[in-house]
Amino acid sequence: MLSKTAIVTGASRGIGRQTAKELAIKGYNVCINYNSSKNEAEDLKNELISYGCNVDVFKADVSIRKEVDDMIDYSLRKFRSIDVVVNNAGICEYKLFTDVTENDLRKMFDTTILGTFNVTQSALKKYMLRNHSGNIINITSMWGVVGASCETNYSTMKSGIIGLTKALAKELGPSNIRVNAIAPGIIDTDMNNNLNREELSEFVSNIPIGRIGNVEDVAQLVCFLASDLSSYITGQVINTNGGYIV
Ligand code: NAP
Cα separation of 86 and 120, whole Å? Predict the structure, then answer.
């Protein structure tokens, strides 16, 4: 049994939920972070406990530093270490650039950039730097790599996550802490509920692998990056998009 601990933000639904599940089944202690989907998070906790996993839930809005600090303190008290942080919590927005308001921009910034900043800095200061070890995995998006029309707000912040990942990997390498990002393509989660059947099949027709992604495609990559199998990989942005962008 591993005695490592992972914190997965936005683990109540979608990619984060599957990531928390796979890490817990692999033997990590897992802190399942949620913000508004309490029932979903509790259901996941109960399911994983029934498999014999060591997990707990913690409600924190990642954009609020006090709530994040409380989550990190709680995890340390409960699990004794924080070895892996998965910055997954995210929101999306489809708007013409000319319709994006300052408030829209701030909300996207708060969840994406400030959220990643808060969780990462808190884990570093409260444990990882002192322990001279750690692993940070940021979930960005292919739109942060190539940009998406009508998603300038989202693309801007996801691109920022790539910059943060690369810079922080350089800063933290000497402290034995790796930092990587995953850039998923279209993944089958609530986030894409707004796409109708025609739009989805238009996407699929441009994906060489011939399907949209599923949450396992991302969660398994997180597990690889969290493990020592990837010990020489840092500062990288790994695309998982079925070949949609190459
Ligand atoms: P999802 O199904 O909509 O789930 C989003 C998760 O983020 C939920 O668990 C939600 O928690 C959490 N969250 C949102 N705001 C939060 C906050 N302020 N504090 C804490 N948690 C918060 O989305 P998903 O598709 O799994 O997306 C997960 C990540 O992958 C996001 O960063 C997204 O940008 C990225 N991504 C997704 C796709 C895709 O096609 N689905 C593609 C590329 C990248 P509550 O419900 O508890 O509030």
Answer: 9
Q: Using the predicted structure, report yes or no on whether residue 113 has a pLDDT greater than 60.
A: yes
Residue of 28, 34, 127, 154 marked active site: 154
Distance 28 CA to ligand 1 centre (A): 21
What distance in Å separates the CA atoms of residue 185 and residue 243, rounded to the nearest whole number? 9
In a domain, 69, yes or no: yes
What is the rounded distance in angstroms from the CA atom of residue 227 to the CA atom of residue 32?
Answer: 19
Structural domains counted in the chain: 1
- Mean pLDDT of the residues in the chain: 97
Nearest to 157 by CA among 206, 210, 90: 90
Answer yes or no: is 245 within a domain: no
Closest CA to ligand 1's atom 21: 10
Beta bridge partners of 182: 139, 238
Which of ligand 1's atoms lies nearest the C-alpha of 41? 47
Band the pLDDT of 2: cuts 50, 70, 90: low
pLDDT band at 175 (very low <50, low <70, confident <90, very high): very high
Task: Give residue 200's domain range.
Answer: 5-240
CATH code of residue 156? 3.40.50.720
In a domain, 246, yes or no: no
Ligand 1 atom at shortest distance from the alpha carbon of 187: 40
Contact assessment for residue 81 and residue 3, using Cβ atoms and an 8 Å cutoff = yes
- Per DSSP, the chain holds a count of helices (H) and strands (E) of 10, 7
pLDDT digits (tens, 9 = 90+) for 144-173: 999 999 999 999 999 999 999 999 999 999
154 is catalytic: yes
Q: Is this model's pTM higher than 0.85 or not?
A: yes
Please give the biggest Cα pair distance in the chain: 53
